[in-house]
Amino acid sequence: MELVVALVSDLHFGPEASFGGKLRKLTGEAPELTRAFVRRMNEVTRPDLVVNLGDDIEDEGPEADRERYGACMAALRGLKAELFHVAGNHDVIHLSEAELLSAWGRPEATRLHYAFDRGGFHFTVLHTRERKDHDISLGPEQLAWLGEDLAASPLPKIVLMHHSAADQDLRGNRWFEGSPHICLVRERRAMRKIFEEHGVLAVFNGHLHWNHLDVIRGIPYVTLQSLIENLDDDAPGRPAAAHAVVRLGPKRIVVEIEGAERARYQFDRR
Ligand SMILES: [Fe+2]
Ligand SMILES: [Fe+2]
């Protein structure tokens, strides 16, 4: 029995903007790239579930964010597969946790971290919080909850989060070279220890706008490229159109990165 999980990240619905005078995020193409992802999932991949790893918007202001986040959710709701969400840093600047939970169709929930079981696997969703230009943290309460949540489940475990818990070599990353504090979670060593103690199979995240794989003490940490990243240096632009298809099987995990930059990773389950 195999569970197929599709991942998409950093959809960034928002206005056209340049970064350092260059067009780096193809925000204007986000709605169409999202619709194309939804079509591919529904017609070709047919995953059991889809996870949105966060940063759905560009944080323009409360009203614009509400509208853009709503547009992103509406596009993703075209998916036939069950859909789960992770909160990204841009999503929580102007929108409240209650607004996000309501947009996620979880109005009864009170927090953005949660867990669920599907197809014989336990999925733990974290909410890493970014203090702009300062740091990214899970915080002591959620760190304690993470240990308890993983300890309580006998199932094989997958962790989903927006920022990274790996120690990535950031050389060559357009957005974060020389700035680990705004892409890697401060408590990452403690988190990895918890993942190792509880036999986590793999960890998936977005945020860094590149494809990157770290294997640390046998656990793969997979960073997924942004859906709307411009793979060229400037305009007119060539969208990454990235998403991942993760096949969780009894003996191995196979990850296929689809879009303009393709890759394939395979891990045997210990
Ligand atoms: Fe992002
Ligand atoms: Fe982000």
UniProtKB/TrEMBL annotation:
GO molecular function annotation: hydrolase activity
Residue span, Calcineurin-like phosphoesterase domain: 5-210
Gene3D superfamilies in alphabetical order: 3.60.21.10
Superkingdom field: Bacteria
PANTHER family listed in its UniProt record: METALLOPHOSPHOESTERASE, CALCINEURIN SUPERFAMILY (PTHR43143), SERINE_THREONINE-PROTEIN PHOSPHATASE CPPED1 (PTHR43143:SF1)
Protein name: Phosphoesterase
Annotated source species: Sorangium cellulosum (strain So ce56)
